Amino acid sequence: MVQQWLQKALSDQNPGARGARSDFDLNNEHDAADLMKETPRQAAVLVPIVRHASGPTILLTQRTETLSKHAGQVSFPGGSIDEGDESAVAAALRETQEEIGLTADFIDVHGELDSYRTGTGFEITPIVATVRPGFSLKIDRGEVAATFEVPLDFVLDRDNHQRQSGVWRGRRRHYYAMPYGEFYIWGATAAMIINLVDVLEAAREEA
User: Could you give the C-alpha distances from 77 to 33, 68, 91, 144, 170, in angstroms and in order?
Assistant: First the structure.
């Protein structure tokens, strides 16, 4: 059921029409124009929706505290698109296997969400996929401290979407957050999840 919903949602979506598409979209400032002048580094992440019989979940990672970028943050598995990667999908699948040991034979790719531009100089392509249960994870402890799953029903509930703020580079910035138990989902990851929710809701309304 969730596979059919995703296929319809991702085939029908109008890219760029929904949600935040950069770290600056919620701030009503001129920083976005400065951000777009830079040439971003291309990256891809996998948005893995696990098809549990008890209900679908989204698989997420928590980065280690020793990384030079995004240390300790919750994220999707993924990373930079290398020269040897044939596509954003190939990069997301490669990075997912390297980071958490989830192999492509358990993964069905359904499409992409809107790309997301970060204030740290990346343009991220989120690749949405469903994952067949039965996999075992092998975590690269140099990059990933933990993995966890969030019920899809939790992220679909708008009451769990928060808008918060903090000071970054001397200015107050607003961002999305989605606290879940001991894990704090925020920033680009939360924005991409909300983009997924927007797309899924639009497909449900049209059904």
Answer: 28, 16, 10, 9, 30
Tally of domains within the chain: 1
Q: What is the pLDDT of residue 11?
A: 75
Pairing of strands 57-63, 183-186: unpaired
Name the residue range of residue 185's domain.
2-206
- Helix and strand counts by DSSP (H, E) for the chain: 5, 11
| Distance separating alpha carbons of residues 153 and 98, to the nearest angstrom | 28
For residue 108, the SS3 value is strand
Banded model confidence at residue 17, pLDDT cuts 50, 70, 90? very low
Question: What CATH code is carried by the domain that includes residue 31?
Answer: 3.90.79.10
With cut-offs at 50, 70 and 90, classify the pLDDT of residue 121.
Answer: confident
The count of other CB atoms within 10 Å of the CB of residue 90 is: 16
Phi, psi of 3 (to 5 degrees): -65, -45
* Residue count (the chain): 207
